[in-house]
Description:
The protein is α+β, with helices and mostly antiparallel strands. Helix content is 50%, strand content 9%. The protein is globular and about 60 Å long.
Amino acid sequence: MEQICDDLAAEHAALDAVVADLDEAGWATPTPAVGWDVKDTILHLHAADGMALLACEDPEGFEAAKLGLNSGTRSLDGWFLDAATTSGADVLVRWRVDRERMLTVFRAQGPKDRIPWFGPSMSALSFATARLMETWAHGHDVATALGTSLPVTDRLRHVCHIGVTTRGWSYVNRGEAVPEGPVRVELTAPSGAVWTWGPPADGADEVAVVRGAALDFALVVTQRRLLADTALVADGELAQAWMERAQAFAGPPTDTFAERKGLG
Length: 264
């Protein structure tokens, strides 16, 4: 838990550095997510982190909040702040406070402790990893909008791991059967290390393989890039089909880049 929390704190800091000095015009910069500007994006992260804090500190209160959200009477982003009347600078201050409170609570959890969420409950370790993945993905949107980039570090391993473990979800979410057979993943980390998942590709049986840069894989599984827009190689029908459907987060499935740009 200490390691994932340290990495999540570093991801927060990387995104914070991108937005820390923005004026209100900068906060209103549109991002690649259609309909979202920079302030909307940080507000969304603040709201999700706030809900994560609530889920840890007051599970019953979280369940009540979830009922309100699921009924459509309130939106997640509007649960804490009103985007129309709150400045970007104020959103940033609130995000800083609540994300630190969230990290403090996470550090006190055991890695297998269960935390309720909008889908099934999650282990504390998986929960913190998911918060890192979402922070990184939305941070990429913000950095792109502002003409800069986030540091590319080996923290991407967390994003890639979620991408691998959600292969089945990418099919189930579309109402499709999960294909039988494994897919091996071979990724080159920013540090030059090689990360692998799945069975070895040199066995007697032919194994589908996804290989390439960890950054490209992370962008595809968080639906910030289409497979064809990266240098990833998807070798085999199982690998190709997965990469065309890959979705490392909850929410309805999307099929085109235009749709994916509008993801929350």
